[in-house]
Amino acid sequence: MILTLKAHATEKEIKQVTAKIKELGFQAHVSKGEVKTIIGVVGEKAITTRGIFETITAVEAITPISKPYKLVSREFKKENSVIKIGNGVQIGGKKIVIIAGPCSVESRDRLIDIAKRVKSVGAACLRGGAFKPRTSPYSFQGLGEEALRYLSEAREITGLPVVTEVMSPETLELVGRYADVLQIGARNMQNYDLLKEVGNYKKPVLLKRGLSATVEELLMSAEYIMSRGNYNVILCERGIRTYETATRFTLDLNAIPVIKHHSHLPVIVDPSHGVGVRSYIPSMGLAAIAAGADGLMLEVHSKPEEALCDGSQSLLPDQLTKMMKELKGIAAVVGRTL
Ligand code: PEP
Ligand code: MN
């Protein structure tokens, strides 16, 4: 339920309302506008307390939220959220953001080489896995903290903020010390303990859609993070599992307008995992921007044949250069910049 306070409500009035919400056992999420403050009353059956708030004079209007997700919903916040992720980069504004880099960090020199290349063609953020969720326990699992140090060095050299995956609550402090954005991988989208911890941690989070998750389940996972007070959530469509075998997953471009309709959070699309085949990635990346995505996450490798993970879906730097030019054209058509 949303409480809209009367115009220019005082700090004292806001405190009075939030105290009442807490006293009733609910969470109060305050959003202050220039004129009006709105307060989300969040918790199971919050709507049953409507009558109590009707008697408080500072409360001008009460609006129920019909969806199971509350803070994530457009009903709670009408304007698009813009997430600031460091070094002036913002996701969800007019500018399309390209996050590019290797699937996993393999060595210092290779990472720095790829980071410089993606920076030179206009990527705004560097990606690279230090802790890798692999299907096989015998596959390369990532370099762990060593990789985090290389990512940090690459950020110092290029100025690119770093996006890297955190796989467990136990490693959150460690990853959080180095990362600008904490990636929650598809396989962890419903790891609720991890979601709660990143919700408490307050750094921006890039939440990837689970392989078999519905859009509503993705939004409910985002709600876990936001309900802990971390409003810096970026959603990521990365393909879902279907009966189709020509591609690794099926990139669900439907999810972009659907999420935009139901939520104010920014949406990034990862066509690399979504299709899994290098030659198909540019088309799907362009289509994602045309459909309204706020940015792309792209795997890029200078020697994909030597990559320790996802080489066959990694773009070559030259392909990225070409794609960036094409993206500029599409961005302009849909009123965005790159
Ligand atoms: C990744 O981004 O490297 C990754 C493992 O992605 P996903 O969780 O979407 O499979
Ligand atoms: Mn990968």
Write the layout of secondary structure elements.
Elements (H helix, E strand, L loop, with lengths): L1 E4 L5 H13 L3 E6 L4 E6 L7 H5 L4 E5 L19 E4 L2 E3 L5 E5 L6 H13 L4 E3 L17 H14 L3 E4 L6 H7 L2 E4 L7 H10 L3 E4 L6 H13 L5 E5 L17 H8 L4 E3 L1 H5 L5 H10 L4 E5 L17 H17 L5
Parallel strand pairs: 7-8, 7-14, 8-9, 9-10, 10-11, 11-12, 12-13, 13-14
Antiparallel strand pairs: 1-3, 1-4, 2-3, 5-6
Manganese (II) ion binds next to loops.
How does this structure look, described?
With 338 residues, the chain is an alpha/beta fold. β7 (97-101), α3 and β8 (125-127) form a beta-alpha-beta unit. The chain has two domains: 2-63, Phospho-2-dehydro-3-deoxyheptonate aldolase, domain 1 (Alpha-Beta Plaits); 83-333, TIM Barrel (Alpha-Beta Barrel), CATH 3.20.20. The protein has eleven helices and 14 strands. Strands 7-8-9-10-11-12-13-14 form an eight-stranded parallel barrel, surrounded by six helices. Strands 2-3-1-4 form a four-stranded antiparallel β-sheet. It is elongated, with a radius of gyration of 21 Å. α3 (108-120) packs parallel to α4. Manganese (II) ion binds at residues 103, 273, 299, 309-310.
